[in-house]
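Revision sheet: structure tokens.
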Amino acid sequence: MQQTDSLVKVAEGIYQVQLPLPFALRIVNCYLLDNGDGTWTILDTGLNYAPGQEVWQATFAALDIQPQQIRQIVLTHIHPDHFGMAGWLQEMSGAPVRLSQREADAARIFWGDANNRYHSLTEQMLHAAVPQEMIEPIITGIGFMLEMMKPHPTQIEIIAPGEIVHMGGRDFRAILAPGHSDGQLMFYDAADRLLISGDHVLMKITPNIGLWPETDPHPLSHFLASLREVRALDVRLALPGHRALITDWRGRIDELIAHHEERLHQTLEAVGSGATGYQIAAQLFDFERLSVHEMRFALVEALAHLDYLIERGEVIQSGEDVWWFEKAQH
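Predicted:
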């Protein structure tokens, strides 16, 4: 095997492929699994733009993989950096794209009709009192991202939570891991205590938990409940969608839970005597240092924390055209 800067063997029969991204995350970790019978599984795909295509081509050359040897393309979830090249790789290989039903539905809603997406996000930003001059650049940035997810895959197969998925010569159990994305799947090989964790658990950074217009309600509630549930898994090594491999599974989950408790405290403080969603987000995040792409994620993350505080009875939301948040009086 020729070694490339973007290709790292991380476990028996599993290679991490580090694909470039044109925004602050810089890298998404995708995986190639050797099925042991001359075929391969791709897990997550990167954004469809020239630098990403070049990395996949170099990877196939390094491992001497022909397109027809790719048996399946498995997706943890349908965010652009994981879904973007699914259609391109499918056209090249003829392999089915496999994901949860919830994510397949979300792909049609999120990426199928750009006008609907623009309208729903604009409406949400107006409710949050985002300044008008900021909305257009944010919407323009979404259009730029949508182009890097074409072509969309046409042959889709559904993976049900709990289903056994054969890849890399292993039997992985699909585990539903909502919060970052409603239908995100993780894949657990109990025999080797190895988990492919998608964006559910990451090192150094915390997954974005956002309240988007089209997603299920209460994303932070779902995320924290899921973290507490999957903490029980016996995991010696987790392969995440970004940053370093995870060797202290329960320790990292405890850190994520503690982070969100601290963030909830900061959000409640930011509410003060009453504020709009934008005003609260601007206190939690340094908007002057953020790109428009990052501002969008900062806003929906602030809204997700406000939503959780409303669930806990600590914050009250009022207003129709513009949402107003204030502390509940006890």
